[in-house]
Amino acid sequence: MDKSQSTGLLFEISHSGRRCHLLPECDVPTKTSSELLDKKYVSNAPTLLPEMAEIDIVRHYVNLSTKNMAIDCNFYPLGSCTMKYNPKRHERLGSIGGLSNVHPLQDDQTCQGMLEILWEMQNYLAEIAGLDGVSLQPAAGAQGELTALLVAAAYFRDKKEKRTKVLIPDSAHGTNPASAAIAGFDTITIKSNSRGRVDMEDLISKIDSQTAVFMITNPNTIGLFDEQIAQITELIHKAGGLVYLDGANMNAILGITRPGDFGADMMHYNVHKTFTGPHGAGGPGSGPIAVRKQLVPFLPAPLIAKTSQGFKLDYDRPKSIGRVRSFFGNVGILLRGYFYIRTLGPDGLKKVSENAVLNANYLLSLLKDSFDVPHGDRCMHEFVASARTLRKDKKISAMDIGKRLLDYGYHAPTVYFPLVVPEAMMMEPTETESKETLEHFAKTMIKIRDEDSDFLHTAPHTLDISRPDEVKAAKEPILRWKK
Amino acid sequence: MAYLLNTPDDKKEMLKSIGVSSIDDLFSTIPESVRLKRPLNVPEALTEIELTRHVERLANANISADGAVCYLGGGSYDHFIPAVVDTVSSRSEFYTAYTPYQAEASQGSLQAFYEFQTMISQLTAMDISNSSLYEAGSGLAEAILMAMSVTGRMGKVLVAESVHPEYRLSFTTYLANLEPSVETVACPSGKMCLEDLAGKLDETVSCVIVQHPNFFGNLEEVEEISKLVHSKGALFIVTYDPISLGVLKKPGEYDADIAVAEGQCLGNPMIYGGPYLGLLSCKEAFVRKIPGRLVGQTVDRNGKRCWVLTLQTREQHIRREKATSNICTNQGLFALRASVYLAALGPKGLTETAELCFRKANFLMDLLCKIPGVKPKFNQQFFKEFTIELPCAAQPVINALVKDRILAGLCQGRWFKEMANVMTIAVTEKRTRSELENYAALFGAAVKAVQGKQ
């Protein structure tokens, strides 16, 4: 079906004189801006926005939307991204006027219902983490990492200790080192061993009196729980450092083990992953952090406190690092996380992780005889397969397989991450997929493996476009439409 | 159990295929010593009916712009949101999609972001824009990091005291462990003092940050500031109100280097502070220093026009500690909403919205200043937000109006100790003349009552 009538760029569809949103006549007698404002403030440049009728806008975007894959249409075994189902009740409840129309600077006594929800959420996240204090402020996981590292820096400054180094495994998400750099630390890379876990010898050789923080993702990005964790946290603590847990993989351990219990001192959540905020084609997310007692005074302000007069925003935090963003936090996503936790309860949360891990292991069992799985035949909530043999034997790459999956109506796995596995295909089915979906997906993977390699190099074949020229896009960047 | 699909029989078959006898066996790598031996201490599960009842009760405990009239501003505003914005953003294909790494499966969002980048550039008369940051406060932090990288200067960062206090605190926190310190330029008249700026500006300063209209609603001398800042080779970073650009000069017209804004006002609910979106635009020369996601146009293997995430070598997943920013997302869904909003308004709608805000704000200011003892705090020109001084403390007046279901404005004493009698009031195109007149009457009565108690 040809959609090109309505999916040209807005600026190409624009028709001079068309209107969509009409404004009421001005009902006050006040003079106009051109009469009242000093000329130096008034724009002389035309505003070049598109001119559209409502139906043009709707057709444009509805037709554009059909060019996307999305959870509501497709299975997304996208490793590390926890693409679980987004419950519809969350969308309805999140847009109740009494929540969505609360202004961020309202006085506390006018928004007690909102504060109660967020106070509860603070407590739930502390409990699930096994840690003492929570800041809901960070807007995303990466900002949570940065916030926690700033908290760590303030903590050491307060103790008058000069510690400059953050140790990060080579299998970590790229945000870890990038956050450490902004927080003013030097980053030291720690090797992973052949089992994807922290190379203890390398770690021990790099711990010293300058070690501020060790950042670990556990379960790690290979999908394995690092059973050396108690030993690792003990080593770091002995050296006077702090352990940071990248909470990207919390979906594997809800109610089973808690970061605080295995020695982490700080962590961030990705509420949009673990507690299912819709990903919105790239955001918004929400990245609250939980920390151990001695770090609580340094958390960003405000936190929510419960007092005899009700809930209040507590700004009286003299040791706080300050704030990392304007206003309270990504409340819309936090609300969805709250709805999710309330829907599942303690038993349901644990079952989430049990079923996420069961699904991942089942998928692994269906694929392990047909693809390389370098790190064994058990995993937590995700695993990393590799196309290295296929690449060698048939010149079929992880990218080829990912692109061909799109033809079959599946989103590609995460490819080429983690960096420590060649031709990586990282798969995370999540608990909201059925056995039949996993079986059908596995069959499709195996079918693709046996397809003609030239055919795979040019996949996908049934989507709107195929293999965009990314080199050209980066070499001669065209970042906006121009007349 | 909600959202779980595996039946007992499914589980049995799956475990058999895996080769273990129980789900617990799958967790054997987690040492016993660190296992949680009790259920999580969170409330028991609720059904959808129960949850809805519970959430509605809590929502009803709030006084919001839903049933009250909202004059609060300071970066978040009660503008009207056309239905078409909600219709588009509630398309599952947009809101349940992932970051568009797989371009072939994401052309809808990628094209929408490219259109967003274009519209924000058009709106600001700037060369290029990214596909959004979190919100304005951390957006300014990103702009400062960018300015440091562009100029290579690690000296002071200068910021007007009239910039939103939460924005200032946000970027000051970001810079806490980096070399530059943040220095404030005084605003005794409610806008940046040019003499103070000239005195503090030198060749080590990377950038100067000004908000226009500023936190008090006042207009800044952006053209003069721009010239002064450029004379010392620093970058001029402005944070603006997108709606104001329907009337006011656009950042590109006064040669701003980087323009940052809070995009909430473009079709997004206030929802207690987020999610919002940060807008960032800049000069073309800085393209490889931009933080965050960028969408670029290219062609596919058949020569068909299409869009991809581009210049990713700036980004953390490639460059790790050397990345331009640690940011890993844009605010995709809210960039989409802002795009639909701007398309729905068009150039005329934006100008009319801005004009309504401006005239109604001026109307209310005049009404309030007829109340004995109430006067403008500053004699400056403003756009949709203005600051007045009361003959009494402002907070009790604000509190008194709550029972009339009016969220009356911001008491500046919250941020500036000496301003306990000062408040800032925002007026959007939604307000009617009768609402404004009613507000002024109730306001006058409240001032009188508070004075009577003093």
List its traits.
A: 483 residues, alpha/beta, Aspartate Aminotransferase, domain 2, 7-stranded mixed sheet, 37% helix, 11% strand, B: alpha/beta, Aspartate Aminotransferase, domain 1, 4-stranded antiparallel sheet, globular
Care to give the gist of this entry?
Chain A has 483 residues and is α/β, with parallel strands linked by helices.
CATH class type of the largest domain in chain A: Alpha Beta
User: What is the CATH homology-level superfamily of the largest domain in chain B?
Assistant: Type I PLP-dependent aspartate aminotransferase-like (Major domain)
Helix content of chain B: 25-40%
Parts with pLDDT < 50 across at least 5 consecutive residues of chain B: none
How many strand segments of chain B?
Answer: 15
Overall form of chain A: globular
Got a strand count of chain A? 12
Question: What's the CATH topology label of the largest domain in chain A?
Answer: Aspartate Aminotransferase, domain 2
SSE inventory with pairings:
The complex is a heterodimer of chains A (483) and B (454).
Chain A: H1 4-7, H2 10-13, H3 33-36, H4 54-65, H5 88-94, H6 97-100, H7 112-129, E1 133-135, H8 141-158, E2 165-169, H9 175-182, E3 186-190, H10 200-206, E4 211-217, H11 229-238, E5 242-246, E6 266-268, H12 271-274, E7 289-291, E8 303-307, E9 310-314, H13 331-367, E10 383-386, H14 388-394, H15 398-407, E11 414-415, E12 424-427, H16 435-449, H17 453-457, H18 470-475
Parallel strand pairs in A: 2-3, 2-4, 4-5, 5-6
Antiparallel strand pairs in A: 1-7, 6-7, 8-9, 10-12, 11-12
Chain B: H1 8-18, H2 48-60, E1 69-70, H3 83-89, H4 92-95, H5 107-124, E2 128-129, H6 136-151, E3 157-160, H7 165-174, E4 182-185, H8 194-200, E5 207-212, H9 222-231, E6 235-240, E7 258-262, E8 278-282, E9 295-299, E10 305-309, H10 316-319, H11 332-368, E11 375-376, E12 385-389, H12 394-402, E13 406-407, E14 410-411, E15 422-426, H13 433-453
Parallel strand pairs in B: 1-13, 3-4, 3-5, 5-6, 6-7
Antiparallel strand pairs in B: 2-8, 7-8, 9-10, 11-12, 12-15, 14-15
Helix pairs in contact in B: 3-11, 5-11, 6-7, 11-13, 12-13
